[in-house]
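Subject: Protein record for review, amino acid sequence with backbone structure tokens
Category: Structural biology, sequence-to-fold work with a learned token vocabulary.
Format: Residues in single-letter code; tokens as whole numbers, each standing for a residue.
Body of memo: The sequence and its backbone structure tokens, given next.
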Amino acid sequence: MERLYSLQGLRGMAVLGVVLFHMAAVEHKYSGGDTLLPGWVDFFQLGVDLFFVISGFVMVIVTRGRFQDRVQAQRFLFNRLSRIYPNYWLYFFITLAIYLVQPMLVNSSHGGSNLWLSFLLLPNDRVLLVMVAWSLVFELWFYLVFTLLLGFRERGLPLLLLAWAMVLLGFNLLDSWRDYSSALKIVLHPYGLEFIVGSAAALLFYSRHSAKVPDAVLWLVLVMALGPGFALIGHYELFSTEGLPRMVLVGLVFAALTLSLALLERRQLIHCPRFLVFTGDMSYTIYLSHLLVLGVVGRAWQIIGNWPTHLEDNLLFLVLMMIAVWCYGWVGYSFFEKPVLDRASRYGQRRFRPAASGKHYDAV
């Protein structure tokens, strides 16, 4: 399987953006009234949208050559579930322990959670116990759809994705996903468009036409995504909505960013910094754990004391928050997530062997 370091670098940027976005809320809660982080950090909540686009891109990468093979479809689903659940359950039980001891510390302002549905990451109308896990419900839905798509011919994937996109576009132009049950809200939500456009970007990446695109055009696409693309998103404050315009514009901008970086990397015109690549490797652990870590640092700030008329304490504790989140991410990834993933991968290789056709598939 082709490893694209730019994708991991983008994951690293996405998760650091989400952390920064949540740091603003922690600062507002514990700083004593003065704040250092500006309001525009709200933009960085779009890190989740970038995750969805990258997820669609990666799904095309890891399923190439595996269509219409029942064993490989089973292995794909096993790999996806083993990537999501074990690491998530660790932070579910940590949060549950806190909830059982101090219920007011966990989602008290959101009316509580359904523990069983939270544990299984199933759609429900209440906030999940691990609040950031809402995006995982969408990821699981995307994985299920892609597993079903593996039953068709691989050359038909572009048309299948187009049909899925047309259904979502048509529905969201005529109706609102908010008026339906919790499960249908996931199925009909335009977030699916970001996954689809990420998949489409990967199909373009592997098409024979991608090699014909001049380097100058790729650089232009990258600059347009980072410049006018981001500016439009910020101007219309699409990060504060959940409607169709956000999913279409943000999805297209992030897909252009992802595709241009991937092609520039393939041509060895860019190299992603190792720090971002490693941060991307442990982005899932950081994503799941960062609210817990931020809460601990925030309470320490409250106990030690804040200076409402000075920003020195804000700067100190904001830096401490980011360092603590990253350092715990390294610990959690190195000593739990990666060992679990390695063991699951070895089991998947033994359990889901390719049919006796001479094909060989790398672990994913």
Notes: The two ends are 8 Å apart (CA to CA). The CA atoms of residues 45 and 89 lie 23 Å apart. The chain has one domain: 5-351.
